[in-house]
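Reviewer 2 asked us to include a model.

Predict the structure of this chain.
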Amino acid sequence: MIKQLDSSYNESVANLESSRTKLGSEYARILEGAKKQAENLRRQIIGSSRLAARNKQLVLIETAVNDAFEKAKTKLRSSDKQEVYKILITKMLEESIAAIGADEVILQCNRNDFDLVKKAIANLSNKNVRMTLSEQPINVIGGIRLRSVDGSTTYDNTLDSRIERFKPLIRKNIVQMLRSEE
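Predicted model (C-alpha cells):
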C-alpha cells in the first residue's frame, strides 16, 4: 500500500511538473500574443494619428493656398493697369488669334479693359483676321476671351483662366516651400 501511495505520489508530482511546464509555455505563448497584439494596436494608433495630422496639414495648406489666390485676385482687380499690362493684353490677343485660327473673331473683355483692348486691336498688324470687340463686358479680373464668329471655338485667355490653369503648379511650389520650412 505504501508502495502504491509512493507510486501515486510520484505520479502526481510528475503530472504536476508536466502541468507546470505546459502552463509556463502556455503563459509565455499568451503573453507573447498579447505583446504582438499590443504592438499592432500601437502601430495602428500611431498610423491613424499620423494620417489625421497629415489630413489636417493638407486642409490647412489648401486653405492657405486658396486664401493666397483670393488675395492675389483681389490685388489684381484693384491694381491700376500699367504698361506691362498693356503689353500682356497684346500678347494675349496674339496668342488667342493663333489658337483659334479663324478668319473672323469676336473678343470679349471686362469693362475696365475695353479701351485698352480696343487699342490693342487697332495696333495689331494681323490683317488676315477680322476682329470685333463685343459691347457686352464679361465678369473677369482682366484679359480677353476670344471666339469664332460661328461660336464653334472659344479661347479663354483671361487672367482668371490663366490663374486656374497654373493653380496646380503654383500650389505644388507653395507646398514645397511650406514643407521646407518645417
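The mean pLDDT is 86. The beta strands are 104-108, 130-133, 143-148, 154-158. We have added this to the supplementary material.
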